[in-house]
Amino acid sequence: MTGQPRSGLVRALLAAALVCAIALPLRSTALELDSIQRAAEAYRNPNVHLEEMFRAALLDTEKLAQFTPDGTVYVATGDIPAEWLRDASAEARPYLYYAKQDPDVRQLLRGIIARQAKYIQIDPYANAFTIDYRVWEQKFELDSLAYPVTLAWSYWKTTGDRSIFTEDESKALDTVLATMQREQDHTRDSHYTEKELADNGAGRPVGYTGMIWTGFRPSDDACYYNYLIPDEMFAVVALGDMADIEQNVYHNIIKAHEARALRNEVQQGIQTYGLVYLPKYGYIYAYEVDGLGHAILTDDANVPSLLSAPYIGYTTANDRYYLNTRAFLLSQDNPSYYTGSVARGIGSYHTPDHWVWPMSLVMEGLTATSPAEKQDVLSELLASDPGDHLLHESFDPNDPKHFTRVDFVWPNALFSEFILTQFEGIAQIPFGDTSDLEFRSE
Q1: Residue 430 lies in a domain
Q2: Count of other CB atoms within 10 angstroms of residue 320
Q3: CB–CB of 304/312 below 8 Å?
Q4: C-alpha distances out from residue 185 to 157, 202, 290, 335, 349, Å
Q5: Is the CB of residue 120 less than 8 Å from the CB of residue 181?
Q6: String of DSSP letters for 254-303
Q7: CATH number where 409 lies
Q8: In terms of residue numbers, what domain contains 293?
Q9: What is the pTM of this model?
Q10: DSSP 136
Q11: DSSP letter string over 120-133?
């Protein structure tokens, strides 16, 4: 395994976790959340198909979450026996809507947050872990550090419960910040390599931009250029959350200042290097850049994506740069935008060519400002159902019975949130507050 050397503390944490896992059974009693079950059963809609899909989607996370002997909660990604930091955070989000009123849901979310704090201390360069705290993959994905921070912040702001902010969580935040700071100058300060990256695992050359280097996309595919703009956007949100937590919970003014300083530098880097001018669209956000004048203009269905920028709290749905970018992304000019007889939307280089991801359709609906567009997206999502009433990783837009990943919880969690916020009138729970950000003027 490559990457930064583990400290003695981290080795001790890993050893203790493994001893616990070996000494005690990995599974405990089945998870039961009455409020989630009741919400699923109580959901009514004239469209029976929508009823069935919402209920299946809302209950999907519950099926994959389990309490473990150390009091934490492990959330598998689906049909792969591991927990991705990103996926688990996204899978947990719909339950935030029930957490304020239900102590059992709060207990579940606290357990998820506590486990993620342990994962991060074991190896901040790993993106996925097993139930016994072993590293499953060490693909460094910047969003895998951002997601747990935003989940903790969103939980705190939703419930008012500060009990998640333990000494362990503080150490995890320290590790996140130190890793982001190190990777801000990857060429000089980092020793991370991974065999799937170019140039013998080191990645292609980059210039210093103030942004944070990342090795892999949220799809787990290697970056071509290692400043991934959607991840940078999400890091800006997460660093703002971290500064809020450090200042107002841990009362650590120095750490809060460091988080805000890094946030501002990343934001300046996005606005300086991440925007590209196209005569047809105006300034749009690139997907990846290298700080040396090269850029990739596309998007990927996995979140954070460029399409998801308002959803993750980076910008607003009516921001001119976002609208320009969105117009490009949802057009044939975007090489990852595919159309078929049943659906049209953004796919991923991770799956078969010209296959659409339900996740990108949900994200189009979550960021749409037109009721007609939201309804069109919903119709395509319902049409993508191959018969099990669940959303899958990707599907053939001409024949949804051909799909990847039999069990993939993430898009179903997003679908739950889509229905709750866009059709049931429930306010979206924010990832963070970026209202103070400065954006470049044309």
Answers
A1: no
A2: 13
A3: yes
A4: 32, 13, 12, 30, 28
A5: no
A6: HHHHHHHHHHHHHHHHHHHHSEEEETTTEEEE-SEE-SSS-EE----SSS
A7: 1.50.10.10
A8: 8-422
A9: 0.93
A10: E
A11: HHH-TT-SEE-TTS
Rounded to 10 degrees, the C-alpha dihedral 254/310/212/114 comes to 60
Question: What is the torsional sign of CA 322, 325, 327, 331?
Answer: negative
What does the DSSP assignment read for 86-117?
HHHHHHHHHHHHHHTT-HHHHHHHHHHHHHHH
- 60's enclosing H/E stretch is helix 48-64
Asked, for residue 313, whether it belongs to a domain, the answer is: yes
Structural domain total, the chain: 1
The reply to whether 437 falls in a domain is no
Q: Read off the tokens for 162.
A: 């500060």
- Of 274, 319, 316, 267, the closest CA to residue 297 belongs to 274
> Alpha-carbon distance 109 to 93, whole Å?
9
Other CB atoms within a 10 A radius of the CB of residue 402 amount to 14
Residue from 80, 96, 81, 100 nearest 161 by CA = 100
- How many C-beta neighbours within 10 Å does residue 146 have? 31
175: tokens are: 């590790």
Give me the tens of pLDDT residue by residue for the chain, a chain 442 residues long. Answer: 334 333 444 444 444 333 333 333 333 344 779 999 999 999 999 999 999 999 999 999 888 899 999 999 999 999 999 999 999 999 999 999 999 999 999 999 999 999 999 999 999 999 999 999 999 999 999 999 999 999 999 999 999 999 999 999 999 999 999 999 999 999 999 999 999 999 999 999 999 999 999 999 999 999 999 999 999 999 999 999 999 999 999 999 999 999 999 999 999 999 999 999 999 999 999 999 999 999 999 999 999 999 999 999 999 999 999 999 999 999 999 999 999 999 999 999 999 999 999 999 999 999 999 999 999 999 999 999 999 999 999 999 999 999 999 999 999 999 999 999 999 999 999 999 999 998 876 6
Q: Degrees (nearest 5) of the Cα angle 192, 271, 246?
A: 65
Q: Is residue 431 part of a domain?
A: no
